[in-house]
Amino acid sequence: NAFIDACARCHSMEEALATWRAMGEEGVPPNAVTFNTLIAGAAWSQAPETAKEMYFEMRRCNFLPTERTFGALLAAAAASTPVDVDWAFSLIQQVVCRPTR
Question: What superkingdom does the record give (predicted)?
Answer without folding.
Answer: Eukaryota
